[in-house]
Write a structure and sequence with these properties.
By secondary structure, the chain is of the alpha+beta class. It has one domain: Outer membrane lipoprotein wza fold like, CATH 3.10.560.10. Helices cover 39% and strands 20% of the residues. The strands form 2 sheets. Strands 3, 4, 5, 6, 7 and 8 form a 6-stranded mixed sheet that branches. Strands 1-2 form a two-stranded antiparallel sheet. β4 and β5 form a beta hairpin. The longest helix is centred in the C-terminal third of the chain and has 22 residues.
Length: 166
Amino acid sequence: MKIKLLNSFLIMTLFFLSSTIYANPEIQNDTENGQARYIIDQETGQLMMKIRLWGEVKNPGVILVPSESDLIEIISHAGGPTSMSRLSKVQVIRNAPQNGEEKILTVNIEEFLETGDASIIPKIYPEDTIIVKSSLWRMVSSSTVIISIALQLTTTFYNLSLIFTK
């Protein structure tokens, strides 16, 4: 029963995501022959690109951003990082790596914020995926309930073992 519910949920989610993306004529057909390309915004005439932004940002998802946007601007378009983000290890996954470039880049935005060195921030291309990972504190804080239950069970078993060994 749980598997059927999970499968139904996944199918509905995929349907919703695909209908959201392909119902928008500005995003539709943004790849041709497997290569990423730019999109012209019909309202402003501005050159745009589609980016996938995941993880610890306020509004993750597929977003259209101006073609000259850098990593900082793109994260800002999504409302900025959350308080639980780990800006020292932001990943950029290239859809189509340029001339010998790595497929996965790790960017230290914290270093950029401390030094102002713009060379740290890579150029972003259409169809790139940006992942802002969670901080260690986020992982610890989200597992506190499980740790609490485990400690309670341990204490209960210990107390029961004391009672029954007397």
